[in-house]
Amino acid sequence: MLTVTRTPLRISLFGGGTDYPEYFERAPGAVVGAAIDKYIIIAALDLIGCQDYNYRLSYSRVEHCNTIYEIEHPVVREVLKHFDVTRRLDMSIISDLPAAGSGLGSSSAFTVGFLRTIYAILNQKPTKIELSKKAIEVEREILRENVGVQDQLHAAFGGINRFDFSGSAIRISPVQMSSAATQQLNASMVLVHTGIARRATTTVAAQIAVTRARAIDKELSELYRLVEECVSLLEAGTSGWLTQLGDMLSASWRIKRTLSREVSNAVLDDLFEAIIASGAYGAKLCGAGGGGFFLALIDPDRLPALTERVAPLSVVPIGIDVDGSTLIYRQTR
C-alpha cells in the first residue's frame, strides 16, 4: 500500500524565542505566524518480499537497512521505534525548498509529516493538537533537540494563527483576517534566500543559554508585545496596514539581532539593507538566524527590482497554506 502526506513549512512573524519552555514556563509566551504554500512531501510504500533489505529511505541520501536500529535518519528511526512499526517500508522525502537550514521550520514540518504518515499507515487519526504535541515530544524529549514549540503547531494546523504558551498550556487562536487583507498579504510576501544554510540547533543553543540566565527577558517581552500588535493590525486591515506590518518586521529583526552573536553577520546585515533599499515595506530573517531565508513584504510592482538587486540569490513568492499537514493519498488495497 502507498501512503502520501503533504506538510507545510512556516513563517514566524512575531514572538519567536518566547515559544521555548525555558521562557514560557516562567513568563507568558506567544507567537503569530503562518503555514505557507511550500511543502514537504513524504511517500511510504509497503515492500514486497523479494528485496534484500527491509527499509529504504530516500532524502538527501539513500539508506538501505535491514533493521530500524540501522536507520541513520534520527526522526525516522525514533518514530518507527516509538510506534513499534514492524512492516517493511520504502520511504521517500521531497521538498519544495531546501530542507536543511532554511529557517522555515523544515525539521519540525518533517517530524509532523512523518508522524502523519505513520499514523495513516497504522489507521489512526490524531487531532491536530495531538499531532503537534507528539511532534514536540519526539523532538524535545526523545531526540533532545534545541527547538521551540511553534513550528510543530504551524505545520499541523495550517493557516495564520496566534499560539499562546503558559506553563504546560497551549492556546490556539486563528487570526480573523478578511479575504481582501489575506489576498493583499499573499500578494506581497516573498522569501529571499541568503545563500547560507545553517543548523538551527547550534544557533538556538546560544539563545537558550541566555534565556535560562534571564539575560534577554527585556527583548523577549518586547517580541511578545509585538504579537498582540500584529494580530490587531491583521484583523483590522485598515489603510496602510502592510506598511505598518513591514515596519514591525524590520523592528523585530533589529531586536532579534541582539539576542545572540550567532543570529546575524555582515553578509546578512548587507542583504537586509539591500532588501529594504529595493522598496520592501520591511523584512526579517526567518527562524533562529544565521542563514536561511529573509521574509520580505513588498509591493508586487517592486518585485523585479528586488530580484535584480539581490541576484543571483533566489526570490520566492509565497502564500498562506490553510490545510496544515494532510493525508493526500492512501491506497487501501
Describe it:
Its EC number is 2.7.1.168. This is D-glycero-alpha-D-manno-heptose 7-phosphate kinase. The structure is a single chain. With 333 residues, this protein is α+β, with helices and mostly antiparallel strands. It folds into two domains: 2-175 and 321-330, Ribosomal Protein S5, domain 2 (2-Layer Sandwich); 179-317, GHMP kinase, C-terminal domain (Alpha-Beta Plaits). It contains eleven helices and twelve strands. Strands 1, 2, 3, 4, 5, 6, 7 and 12 form an eight-stranded mixed β-sheet that branches. Strands 9-10-8-11 form a four-stranded antiparallel β-sheet. Strand 9 and strand 10 form a beta hairpin. Helix 4 runs antiparallel to helix 5 (150-157). The longest helix is centred in the last third of the chain and has 20 residues, at 217-236. The termini are close together.
What is the compact description of this entry?
Pfam families: GHMP_kinases_C, GHMP_kinases_N. It is built from eleven helices and twelve strands.
Protein topology:
Blueprint: E1 2-14, H1 21-24, E2 29-46, E3 55-58, E4 62-65, H2 74-82, E5 89-95, H3 106-121, H4 128-142, H5 150-157, E6 160-166, E7 169-174, H6 179-188, E8 189-193, H7 200-212, H8 217-236, H9 241-256, H10 266-277, E9 282-285, E10 293-297, H11 303-310, E11 315-317, E12 326-330
Parallel strand pairs: 3-5
Antiparallel strand pairs: 1-2, 1-12, 2-5, 2-6, 3-4, 6-7, 8-10, 8-11, 9-10
Helix pairs in contact: 2-3, 3-4, 3-5, 4-5, 8-9
Keywords: ATP-binding, Kinase, Nucleotide-binding, Transferase
Domain GHMP kinase C-terminal: 243-310
EC number: 2.7.1.168
